[in-house]
Design goal:
- The protein is mainly alpha-helical.
- The chain has one domain.
- Helix content is 82%, strand content 0%.
- It is flat, with a radius of gyration of 15 Å.
């Protein structure tokens, strides 16, 4: 059940890392951190989105938890 989400997440991570490492100079820790953030955050969103569309219970629970927390603490 988790395979389609993992495939999309893996492709996204590979494409972002290859593209960003060609554009940004390597070696700096800030650059590495930005690449990690730009890779992981959208990958998690893709992964949870695809898993929720497939009605995977764990993904639906995580999304429900995030919605409740965001609803309780709206941005100021």
């Amino acid at each position: 059940r988790w395979l389609p989400g993992l495939v999309v997440m893996g492709i996204w991570v590979w494409l972002v890392q290859m593209g960003l490492l060609k554009v940004w100079p390597e070696g700096r820790s800030l650059t590495r951190a930005l690449i990690l953030i730009a890779t992981v955050v959208p990958a998690v969103v893709f992964y949870l989105g695809i898993s929720a569309k497939m009605k995977v219970a764990e993904a639906e629970r995580v999304i429900g938890l995030l919605r409740r927390r965001l609803h309780r603490n709206p941005p100021h």
